[in-house]
Specification:
With 520 residues, the protein is of the alpha/beta class. The protein is built from 15 helices and 28 strands.
């Protein structure tokens, strides 16, 4: 599906840096700060404007899963919980490495100004979420952890060179090494020349009609990697958060109802008041996300109801503990202290992505990835709750350090200037509708094949602005998701096949997609 790319000299501007970071969420800013603090010239690219909505990091509610000193928790227990949630596809060494570095990464975030809720002076308050055997989730502002993380990092990154309204169109490379990024901004097409590029573009939630992700989560980093011939893996594992607020709106970003509410005692019931998860899993409503989402989907299929409900009325001080959820509910005309909260599963998190090691390095020299866009082996077939901010902090910092070191070793890059790039792209609404119908919580071969046929007929579209880039990125990413979902003829983690309901032991291996490189 990747057309040829003609190479010529038709750019309006050029810029040089040691390290380019694409993305301004937790992984991107932590990486940029790490490279900057090692004396490198860093340029951060964001396709968003100053006034646009926040990153996915900003919307994170639950918290950060981290093993604290002097508690009854342990690295081994956190690793065990993560491996259990990952359904046989986590890399145990990667999980252990990232979990073990969590406290130091959080401590550095605190040194950058982040403040977490305390149960007593100097003692962080801990909560529990689905799949965790311990209370190990630190949080801020009740259920506004992501907003606090983003605030602290934005403040720390205020001196960085952050270029907004800069849309990354292509990772440039020559002779097996990165040379920069092709970018479009208000001045036209340009190139940022750099030996190190870090993808920190976030997720792919807008493959679907309704998602908890912000508008910019359009799979850009996965597409940029694919177009550069770099492998992606496990992209069929799209986590659908069990509890997205059902407020009658048709699509776009919908409010998340954090599972920390279930951690504090709320229960999931159907329209008749019957438990949704009883008999499904020993952990009940605190089972891993894939289990709870599938249970909700099965109940809705059985009853034809539009939603199930979260009963949080017994939680004392709900509005103070969960102010973000309270505000979202009240805006939808629901008082969570007196009424049931209507919820449905919603596209939330990509467990797979660009293949990296635990330092963010990809197979292309000079290209790094961190955060949701990357597949380190941390999440496997299903992400454990609140491991996302943890991974973004740890691997983001490591990727920044590694990219800074690579820039010194590689020296200034040499490379040509490509023409504007044409890519295949479907109309976004058509793609989202088809993905929601055939590649959502439950898939089957017939639906996936119809998706593959639709993608094969996608027309070629010139990459003239952010919208066309996002449509092309969504189309490329959808192609990878559909191909991997067809290949995985089993149900595992957050990938559920109605035609293959059982887990196949022989399929306890990761899928890998690597397109041909047509031109670089």
């Amino acid at each position: 599906m990747t057309p040829g790319i003609a190479c010529g000299r038709h750019t309006a501007w050029q810029l040089r840096a040691d390290v380019v970071v694409i993305g301004t969420g937790v992984a991107g800013l932590v990486a940029a700060l790490a490279a900057h603090r090692r004396g490198r010239r860093v340029v951060v690219l964001s396709k968003a404007s100053e006034k646009e909505g926040a990153t996915a990091t900003y919307y994170a509610q639950g918290g950060i899963a981290v093993v604290l000193p002097r508690t009854d928790d342990s690295i081994e227990a956190h690793v065990a919980d993560t491996l259990a949630a990952g359904a046989g596809l986590c890399d145990p060494e990667a999980v252990t490495s990232i979990v073990a570095d969590g406290y130091d990464a959080v401590a550095e975030l605190v040194s950058d100004g982040a403040r977490f809720d305390e149960s007593a002076p100097g003692e962080w308050s801990l909560t529990r979420e689905g799949g965790h055997s311990r209370r190990r989730i630190i949080h801020a502002g009740g259920d506004a952890t992501g907003a606090e993380v983003q605030r602290a990092l934005d403040r720390a990154a205020a001196t960085l060179d952050i270029r907004r309204n800069h849309v990354a169109l292509q990772v440039l490379h020559r002779d097996g090494a990165v040379t920069g990024v092709l970018v479009r901004n208000d001045d036209g097409l340009g190139i940022v020349h750099a030996p190190s590029v870090i993808l920190a573009t976030g997720g792919l939630g807008h493959l679907y009609s309704a998602t908890t992700n912000p508008e910019g989560s359009t799979g850009d980093g996965i597409a940029l990697a694919l177009w550069a011939g770099v492998a992606v893996s496990d992209v069929e594992f799209v986590q659908f958060h069990p509890t997205m607020l059902f407020d009658g709106q048709a699509g776009g970003r919908r409010p998340l109802i954090t599972e920390a509410i279930r951690g504090e005692g709320a229960t999931l019931v159907d329209a008749h008041g019957d438990s949704v998860t009883a008999g499904v899993h020993p952990m009940g409503d605190l089972a891993p996300r894939d289990v709870v989402a599938a249970a909700i989907d099965a109940r809705l299929t059985q009853t034809s109801d539009p939603c199930v409900y979260l009963d949080a009325r017994a939680i004392a001080g709900f509005a103070k503990r969960f102010p973000t959820v309270t505000a979202a509910c009240l805006a939808a005309g629901i008082d969570p202290t007196r009424q049931l909260i209507p919820v449905v599963p919603g596209a939330h998190y990509s467990c797979g992505g660009v293949v990296t090691d635990v330092h963010g390095r990809t197979e292309l020299s000079g290209l790094f990835a961190a955060g949701e866009v990357a597949r380190t082996g941390m999440h496997g077939a299903n992400r454990l709750a609140s491991n996302s901010l943890l991974e973004g902090l740890v691997v983001g910092r490591r990727a920044g350090v590694a990219a800074a070191g690579h820039a010194v070793a590689a020296g200034p890059p040499r490379g040509g200037e490509p023409d504007p790039v044409d890519r295949v792209a479907l109309a976004r609404k058509d793609l989202q509708r088809a993905m929601s119908n055939h590649a959502s919580v439950v898939r089957d071969a017939d639906g996936l094949r119809s998706l593959a046929d639709l993608l094969a007929e996608a027309p070629v579209l010139a990459q003239r602005n952010r919208t066309t880039l996002e449509d092309a990125a969504l189309t490329a990413t959808a192609g990878a998701v559909v191909a991997a979902a067809l290949e995985r003829t089993e149900s595992r983690g957050c990938h559920h096949r109605s035609d293959y309901p059982d887990t196949g032991p022989e399929m306890a291996v990761s899928t890998v997609a690597r397109p041909e490189v047509v031109c670089s």
